[in-house]
Amino acid sequence: MSVTDPLTPEPLLQLGLGFMASKTLLSAVELGIFTVLADGGRDRASLSSAVGLHPRSAADFLDALVSLNVLTRSEDGTYRNTPSADLFLDRAKPSYVGGILEMADARLFGFWNNLTDALRTGAPQNEVAHSGAPFFATLSQDPVAWRNFLNGMNGVSTPLAAALAADFDWTGRRHVIDVGGALGAVPAAVLTLHPDITGGVFELPPVEPVFDEFVAARGLTGRLVFHGGDFFSDPLPEAEVYVMGQILHDWDLEQRRFLLKKAYDALPAGGVLIVYDAMIDDERRRNTYGLTLSLNMLIDSEGGSEYTVADASQWLQAAGFTKVEARPLIGGYTAVYATK
Known about the structure:
Elements: H1 10-16, H2 18-31, H3 33-37, H4 44-51, H5 55-67, E1 71-73, E2 79-81, H6 83-88, H7 98-111, H8 115-121, H9 127-131, H10 135-139, H11 143-167, E3 175-179, H12 185-193, E4 198-203, H13 208-217, E5 224-228, E6 241-245, H14 253-266, E7 272-277, H15 288-300, H16 309-319, E8 323-328, E9 334-339
Helix pairs in contact: 2-7, 7-11, 11-12, 14-16
């Protein structure tokens, strides 16, 4: 570093206070700012009235969103969505990814306040910390929280689903099952691109009503079906391709190995298992998203974590898969294709 480039605390302060910008965006999603503006630009008074902003907060809040590059403001004071906000944060669009942000706002933002406790104890800081009951059983008892969680999982899966549907060679494949696939974002994307393929989601029975709504909205009723069950105790539905996306990171090593072997045993010869997660780079230096998401799994699960690409490849080979190929997706995620 030269004498003309002195050390400054600014990067550290921006990092440490980054929660302010994060919460500003999360509140904007919660208030429906981007959905309202999808119908056209509005001035401050009109937008404030539509989403319920107090006059004291409106100018600073909306202009903070401009500074964060999710809104624009023209010379006449009209606010509009940026192209990315309009595409991904309008609840009315199938490309909406705000479900994960809604879930983060409603659940994870508060849990992360207890990160230090999680680091010291290794214990989850989510609903399980208060009830002592299994996570999914606890969450599914609250209809609002359950729907919020499922929409959150669907939100984070939506762009990954499009990437997988385009990246994997689906030629000759007839049926795909997403194991633990929430609302079915991945098979929905595949079936939309490939009209000759059918698919299903294997999930806990309480998921089915929300799944049915999602499938109907995508025009896939009859082609994309629901299979209720527990992937630890019930047989997997037959398929040529299984998908386990953001599943292995929920569980400990023994449970991961069990699920991979179960998928291997259920697949026909030549069948493929697709595993995707925010896998950590093998040197554990670059994928900040994967590393911080692993801390989130510390907070939000009993034994989960992210893992490296090398780890995933080793586990899949140990399960019996003969051809294992890792490919980067988007946003810090990696897919591993394993062929039986």
